[in-house]
Amino acid sequence: MITMKITSKDIILDTDERIRMQSEPVSLPLSNEDKELLQAMLDYVRNSQDDEIAKAEGLQPAVGIAAVQVGVLKQMIAVVIPYEDGVDEVALVNPKIISESVQNAYLDNGEGCLSVKGEHPGHVFRHARIKVRGYDLIQDKNVTISAEGYFAICLQHEIDHLSGTLFYDHIDANNPWKSDDEAEVI
C-alpha cells in the first residue's frame, strides 16, 4: 500500500479561494481515504518538528494543520505540541468547541500559519481554556479534550480553518497590538 505524503508544495495559500470555504463534516467510521489523509496530516506536523526530516523534505515547521490547507474541504485537523515532559497530540475529525472560558489568551508575538506568507502582526485573542469534542484517529474513538494555554490556542486556530477563518481576521485593524490585562499572555 502506498501511503500518502504531504509536503510544503501541497499547502495552499490564503490567495487560494478554497482557504475561505466551509469544510464539510466527515462521516464515521472513517473511510480508508480519510484515515490516510488525516494520518498524512499528522505525519507532516510531526516530521516538520524534526529538524533533520524537515530539512531533508523541505517542510515548513508547524504545530497544526487543517485538511483545507491541502485543498480538502473536510473537517479534519492535526495538532502536535511538544513539551519537555511529553506531547499534546490529536488528529481530530469533526472537532467542535463545546465550552470555552471567559478569560482570553494570546501569543505575545502573534500567530503564524502555513497558508499565510504575508506579515500580519498583532495579537489574536482566543479563549484561554476550551473543551473540544470530536473523533480522534490516534485513540480511535470519540473524545472530549480539555485544553488550555498554547494547546487551546492551536486547536482554536485549526478549528477556525474549518469555517474559512484565518488568524489575522481576529486582529484589531485599528490597534493590532492591543493588550488585555485579564488575558493570559503566552
Automatic annotation (TrEMBL):
Keyword line: Hydrolase, Iron, Metal-binding, Protein biosynthesis
Catalyzed reactions per annotation: N-terminal N-formyl-L-methionyl-[peptide] + H2O = N-terminal L-methionyl-[peptide] + formate
EC primary class = hydrolase
Query: Which GO biological-process labels does this protein carry?
Result: translation
Q: Which residues cross the membrane?
A: none
Cofactor binding remark: Binds 1 Fe(2+) ion.
Positions contributing to Fe cation binding: C113, H157, H161
Can you name one GO molecular function term for this protein? peptide deformylase activity
| Catalytic residue list | E158
Mind telling me which InterPro entries this protein's record contains? Answer: Peptide_deformylase (IPR023635), Peptide_deformylase_sf (IPR036821)
EC number(s) on file: 3.5.1.88
Task: Tell me the cofactors it needs.
Answer: Fe(2+)
Q: Please, which domain of life does this record's source organism belong to?
A: Bacteria
The family database entries (SUPFAM superfamilies) matched by this protein are listed as: Peptide deformylase
Instruction: Report the leader peptide range.
Output: none
Q: Which NCBIfam families match?
A: pept_deformyl
Instruction: Report the function annotation for this chain.
Output: Removes the formyl group from the N-terminal Met of newly synthesized proteins. Requires at least a dipeptide for an efficient rate of reaction. N-terminal L-methionine is a prerequisite for activity but the enzyme has broad specificity at other positions.
Say which family it is in: Belongs to the polypeptide deformylase family.
Q: What is this protein called?
A: Peptide deformylase
Please report the organism this UniProt entry assigns to the protein.
Holdemanella biformis DSM 3989
